[in-house]
Amino acid sequence: MTAHEIDYTIYGEEMQYVEIELDPNEGVVAEAGSFMMMDSGIQMETIFGDGSKKDSSIMGKIFGAGKRLLTGESLFMTAFYNTGMGKKHVSFASPYPGKIIAVDLTQFGGKFVCQKDAFLCAAKGVSVGIEFSKKLGRGLFGGEGFIMQKLEGDGMAFVHAGGTTAVKELAAGETLKVDTGCIIGFDQTVDYDIEFVGGIKNTLFGGEGLFFATLTGPGTVYVQSLPFSRLAKRVWAAAPRGGGKDKGEGSILGGLGDLLDGDNF
Predict the structure, then answer these.
(1) pTM higher than 0.70 for the full model?
(2) Range 137-154 average pLDDT
């Protein structure tokens, strides 16, 4: 194996974290900000690029960092190495309520395609790159633009999803239609495209967006019930305006209650 062979345990139900067990000289790479805790004897190092060793030249590192910048991630990642004696542990937490999914890249032919913000951490040696869309419609209307993330290698990687996770095994030619934001990831054998919802009423009043994704097998598809973008919109819509407490929340009067209590005058 080119990637480090790590062991792991996932803890929790709705706010999960993954604990990685490292033997001496083993390492794991993670997105900045996902670190939770670690044993003494583990050395932390900020690295430039995608964390793999496929190209250790200066230009290779710059290209790897540039790929991450296109996906909206930081130019840097954080690596954690067990420099001590015996087994050590380091843990990484999911950034919002949901599930952490362990992806064994050897079971996906060495490549797994996922949302650009889904990656959490991976064994040292796994490459975190970009997957360009080859179809114009998918790039313009797919919700993730032309770019998704791809995880390549022969080690373990971990992605996080919002809400509850569904795993669909698609047969050859079988198609699943999914809200574009609800896709977590899929293996490289799945064909991904965008389809217009259709219908004037659906378009204007459906409230589900103008497009959904069509995923055609064979292959495995991971779907999430609560994408972060949807959660953020609900929080923003419910947030009180002007920094004050929304006294109308939960009442029959709703916003009218704010007018009647005099706070707006």
Answers:
(1) yes
(2) 66
